[in-house]
Structures are given as structure tokens and as C-alpha cells.
């Protein structure tokens, strides 16, 4: 849609290697664990990635969110296991909804804890330093006022990633 001119600016979770597009990294955020509220690990303030080795995972669809899918596979590989993918879904709210239903656990970007979906416990994830990066993307050579405004806002008010604490991470609903 960017290349065709249907959009002037887009937000993406992966960098694009396309000579016709430019990107600007807006922020990086850590991954967190999303667990069904009744899961035994939800009683802990943090979850080590290795503790999820024998769990069923709800993953982002490989074709719709390849960067996040690949992050999950690499994180688990580094931790010494291959995740058992029970379901793939898209968008992120559907992934979280499936976790709430008890279909499995998931590893999601930290900002997903703001969805406040009932029956989901979000926990800090230890045992990995992986993060998800969020980009602004636009057509190379675009000089539209919309693009200039987006870039001006980012330069004057850069995005700040919230630091998670037990109080703002919240308890399961």
C-alpha cells in the first residue's frame, strides 16, 4: 500500500529491505509472556523462557507477522527448545484472545499488555534479551506534508517505552 501510494506513512514491526522505501526506528520493546490467568506460572512476577518449554504456544501467523514469528523461533532455539505451536493467529488481539481461552501461552511485544483482555496474565520474560522493533515507513523521495508532519512529531516527541513494574503490568482480570 505504501509503494502504490495508497498510504503516505505506515507503522511496521520489521525493517524492510526495499530500495523504494525508507524506515525510521521508533522504539524497541521487550517481549513478555502472555499466560491464561489460571496458569501456575501466572502466580510468579517473572517467567523464564525455559519454563515454557513444555507448553502449547499460540503464535502470530508466520505469513502475517513474519518478524515476530521468527523472533519466537530464535528466542526458543537460543533457550534450547523448539516451541510447540498449537495455533497461529492474526492480529495480535486474536492471539491474546486465544491465550485467554486457554489454548496456550504466547510471547508478545510488551505493549500488548495494554489490551486488557480478561483472563490473561502478562509477565516479564527472563532468559532472553530479544526485543521487537517498531518502525515508521514511507516511500523514498516522498515530500508530502503528511510525511513531514509525522517525522517532525517523532523528532520533537520521541516515543518512550514504558518500564514495566508489577503495578502497571497488572494482575489477570
Briefly note the structural class of the backbone.
Answer: alpha/beta
Instruction: Name the overall outline.
Output: elongated
Residues in helix, %:
10-25%
N to C succession of SSEs: EEEEHEHEEEHH
What distance separates the N and C termini? Answer: 37 Å
Give your account of this protein's structure:
The chain has four helices and eight strands, in the order ββββαβαβββαα. It is elongated. By secondary structure, the chain is of the alpha/beta class. The model has no long low-confidence stretch (mean pLDDT 87). Helix 1 links the parallel strand 4 and strand 5. 23% of the residues lie in helices and 31% in strands. The strands form two sheets. Strands 1, 2, 3, 6, 7 and 8 form a six-stranded mixed β-sheet that branches. Strands 4-5 form a two-stranded parallel sheet.
Keywords:
single chain; 173 residues; alpha/beta; six-stranded mixed β-sheet; two-stranded parallel ribbon; 4 helices; 23% helix; elongated
Amino acid at each position: 500500500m505504501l509503494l502504490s501510494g495508497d498510504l503516505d506513512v505506515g507503522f511496521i514491526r520489521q525493517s524492510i529491505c526495499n530500495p523504494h522505501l525508507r524506515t525510521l526506528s521508533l522504539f524497541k520493546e521487550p517481549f513478555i509472556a502472555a499466560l491464561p490467568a489460571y496458569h501456575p506460572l501466572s502466580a510468579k512476577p517473572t517467567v523464564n523462557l525455559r519454563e515454557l518449554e513444555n507448553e502449547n504456544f499460540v503464535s502470530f501467523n508466520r505469513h502475517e507477522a513474519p518478524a515476530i514469528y521468527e523472533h519466537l523461533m530464535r528466542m526458543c532455539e537460543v533457550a534450547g527448545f523448539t516451541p510447540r505451536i498449537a495455533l497461529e493467529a492474526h492480529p495480535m488481539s486474536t492471539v491474546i484472545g486465544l491465550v485467554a481461552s486457554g489454548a496456550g501461552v504466547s510471547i508478545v511485544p510488551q505493549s500488548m499488555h495494554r489490551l486488557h483482555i480478561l483472563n490473561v496474565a502478562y509477565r516479564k520474560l527472563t532468559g532472553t534479551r530479544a526485543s521487537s522493533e517498531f518502525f515508521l515507513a514511507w516511500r523514498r523521495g516522498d515530500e508530502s506534508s503528511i510525511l513531514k508532519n509525522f517525522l517532525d512529531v517523532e523528532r520533537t516527541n520521541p516515543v518512550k517505552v514504558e518500564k514495566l513494574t508489577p503495578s502497571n503490568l497488572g494482575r489477570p482480570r
